[in-house]
Design brief:
By secondary structure, the chain is an alpha/beta fold. It contains eight helices and eight strands. It has a single domain (7-280), classed as 3-Layer(aba) Sandwich (Rossmann fold). The protein has helices at 16-26, 39-50, 68-81, 108-130, 165-186, 210-219, 227-239, 266-280; strands at residues 7-10, 31-36, 58-62, 87-90, 134-139, 191-196, 250-252, 255-256. Strands 3-2-1-4-5-6-7-8 form an eight-stranded mixed β-sheet, with helices on both faces. α1 packs across α7 (227-239). The longest helix has 23 residues, at 108-130. It is globular and about 50 Å long.
Length: 287
């Protein structure tokens, strides 16, 4: 389908799933805003997308999404330069084998995989509503099935970090809970929001996580999808006619899939929302 004149924003666009999604969306003629952490990789991606037949305007933005100050500055730039936003794809994510805090005091996995989704979406909510019908896609993972919310220790200062797995699975559960609560708040607005499991994709997010992470990725090669395959459901949810109107779902292989019981708990979703507001103070409560 053609999307000339519509605006699509993709975080984590310079590698893996995000890059594959950007290449697919570029063929629609939509105005693309691709977010990366590296100036060089972001510029290279913009150049690559410009060369795709049928592509529309391409804009690259550099942002460290682990830092709320940079997310706020990014949102300000987007709102100043674009009068509409039709699709927001929250894709950037990582797993870190060692627990570290950002300069703003948040555990890195939580900061990138959850707080960034929550804050960027909150800051861009009004323009999405004004541009509706619009879509929000949160890239989650089946890791949420084994995740649990450490309500008294979300930053995992006291609980075992388990080489980053506990932090990662918790953050992916948070993605689904956030999606369900946001869908509830946006009901009737003509803005839909869905979480997507792209499959087990070797996106390279194990880089710089030590020998154990590299070994696990090598051993699991037979089970891994290519990034292009992993991008299929993200693209489908973001721009297809078939996905129009689907709201508050957990999607896999271009269809709804049952999420975990923990992810279906709306009391937990509401609790997470209130905590997220206090952590990010986006001046937006969802009411």
């Amino acid at each position: 389908m053609r999307m000339d004149g519509e605006v699509v924003l993709i975080t984590g666009a310079t590698r893996g799933i995000g890059r594959s999604v950007a290449r697919e969306v570029a063929t629609t003629g939509a105005t693309l805003i691709v977010i990366g952490r590296s100036h060089a990789r972001t510029a290279a991606l913009v150049s690559e997308l410009h060369n795709i037949g049928g592509s529309g305007p391409i804009h690259g933005e550099v942002c460290d999404l682990t830092l709320q100050s940079e997310i706020r500055a990014l949102a300000d730039r987007i709102l100043a330069e674009h009068v509409r936003l039709d699709v927001l794809i929250n894709n950037a994510g990582a797993i870190f084998s060692q627990r570290q805090l950002t300069s703003e005091g948040f555990e890195r996995t939580w900061a990138l995989n959850h707080n960034a989704y929550f804050l960027l979406t909150a800051l861009l909510r009004n323009v999405l509503v004004e541009s509706s019908p619009a879509r929000i896609i949160n890239v989650a993972s089946d890791a949420h099935y084994v995740g649990s919310m450490c309500w008294d220790d979300l930053q995992l200062a006291r609980n075992q970090y388990w080489w980053g797995w506990r932090a990662y699975s918790q953050s992916k559960l948070a993605n689904v809970l956030f999606t369900r609560q946001l869908a509830y708040f946006l009901a009737g607005s003509r803005v839909t929001v869905n979480a997507v499991h792209p499959g087990f994709v070797n996106t390279g997010f194990h880089r710089n996580n030590g020998l154990l992470a590299k070994t696990m990725m090598v051993l699991s090669l037979p089970m891994q999808r290519q990034s292009g395959t992993g991008a299929e459901t993200v693209v489908w949810a973001a721009i297809s006619e078939a996905a129009k109107g689907i709201n508050g779902e957990y999607l896999y292989d271009c269809k709804p899939r049952k999420a975990s019981e923990r992810a279906m708990d709306m009391a937990a979703a509401s609790r997470l929302w209130e905590i997220s507001v206090s952590m990010t103070a986006p001046q937006y409560s969802g009411d």
